Amino acid sequence: STFGALNAVLMTSPRIFFAMADDGVLFKPVAKIHPSWQTPYVAIGLASVLGIAFVMLRDFEQLADLFVTASIPTYMLSIAAVYRLRQRPGYAPPVRVPFYPVVPALFLLATVFLLGNAILDPATRWGTLGVLAVVAAGAPVCRIAFPDRRPA
């Protein structure tokens, strides 16, 4: 399971960095393509440096906790977006969710419970708050660093 997750992260992270830089929400040099191999070599290097730094600074359990804690807000926002999308006029969802308003709400409650539990636990409190602070800082930092870029 760990190696499968690691493989997914190693394959997707550089591409996410590349796409963000290409869209103008990350520094443009990260979108450079290698002239011979046609790969996003700066994005791959950035992901590699970040990965090495995390491995050098944390043990396996801390890394697993950080990874899960950083992923949960993304899942929460994705599910919460369903409510907003369904309010748009003329939107016809291609897929129906049984018990629609209840199922996403239960997911959101469960994830809030998980994060709240991690914050209340003294062993994971500061790590969780730190990760959540970094995740929450993403939007304001992006606005400051790229003032001309507006969301789609």
List keywords for this structure.
mainly alpha
Percentage beta strand: under 5%
Mean pLDDT: 87
Largest sheet: none
The structure class reads: mainly alpha
- List the total number of helices: 5
Helix content: over 70%
Span between termini: 35 Å
Q: Quick one: overall form?
A: globular
Report the uncertain regions: none
Total beta strands: 0
* Computed Rg: 18 Å
Element order: H for helix, E for strand: HHHHH
Write the layout of secondary structure elements.
Layout: H1 2-23, H2 41-57, H3 60-87, H4 102-120, H5 125-145
Helix pairs in contact: 1-2, 3-4, 3-5, 4-5
Q: What would your notes on this structure say?
A:
This protein has 152 residues and is mainly α. The chain is 70% helix and 0% strand. The chain has helices at residues 2-23, 41-57, 60-87, 102-120, 125-145. Helix 3 (60-87) packs across helix 5 and helix 4 (102-120) packs across helix 5. It is globular and about 50 Å long.
